[in-house]
Protein: Fe2OG dioxygenase domain-containing protein
Organism: Stephania japonica
Amino acid sequence: MVDAQAKNSATVMRLLSDGLNCRSVPHSYIQPLEKRPTNLPSSLISSPHCNQQNYTSPIVDLEHGRFDRAKTIQQIFKAIEEFGFFQLINHGISKEMMGEAMSVGREFFEMPMEDREKLYCDGFEKPVKVASSVVYDREDVHYWRDSLRHVCYPVEESTHFWPLKPPKYREVVAAYSEKVRALALKLLELIADGLGLKSNYFDGELTQMQTILVNHYPQCPDPSLTLGLPVHKDPTLITLLLQDLFGLQVLKDGEWMGVQPLPGAFVVILGFPMQIICNDKLKAVEHRVLTNSSTARTTITTQVFPTKDCTLEPIEELIDDQNPPKYRTLTFQEYFNAHMAARLDPEETIKPFKLH
């Protein structure tokens, strides 16, 4: 049985990473009818760019040297409250650095299989892992994605775990991850200020962990039948996504809204732990990933989150008679275990911790 499972895992991995030489989506990847993406823009089938009409992207502009702290905080809170995410521009990380990071991420998935499969494993126990076609749902349906995930903080204690190939991977990603971490902490300072907290409130255990997740979504024969990632809320404090092709959708007012990439921008999403801490004042957004039939799509996600023993509970300053605590005290490990046990389902994940 173990040999059969291992063989199946390796076969599935090769299926996506080495290209799919067929004209239809294999049965094991076809989503149940109620989970399939509907009303896909025709451009998604023929082009990696999605030109949706009535598209409005919330944008936060750090304005380089003309930074206005109060204005920026207002932009962040308005975007999160109305849309659940925003695209961050003029953030100080060069397009050259972002481009180099994206390039080595793509190169990793273009390498020969023998170079990648050495890192293949199940579970989250290893500091670096390659995964493919992961099953999240109880329907046992595979998702159309390959991924490389590894720890990246502190950098000097992490790089020896990282892939040796492509040759520039460690150098490029080390510099990139340090810059993005500084940016994430700056955003969290602004959020703390907006909540009426000390600027360093989110320092320490709440942001001690950081990972890089390189997602690779191969070209798909029929995007209407499958998904790259299921509907979920992030298990992070804050997530910064680098994307250059369309694929991300967020749920807004009961409808799926496409997040069209902006050159040089990060998509910023708050995770469920932040929602707990903020007592629902700032909410994590449900989102999913589509595939497309014209080209492969690669993204780089930087995830900042608490240590496993870190306590999560609504902030005392945000609680009063009109706003009683909505969640009980828990550890991040408790939350993450529930997240995985619920197969990423947002409602099922949070049920054990809700007070009202």
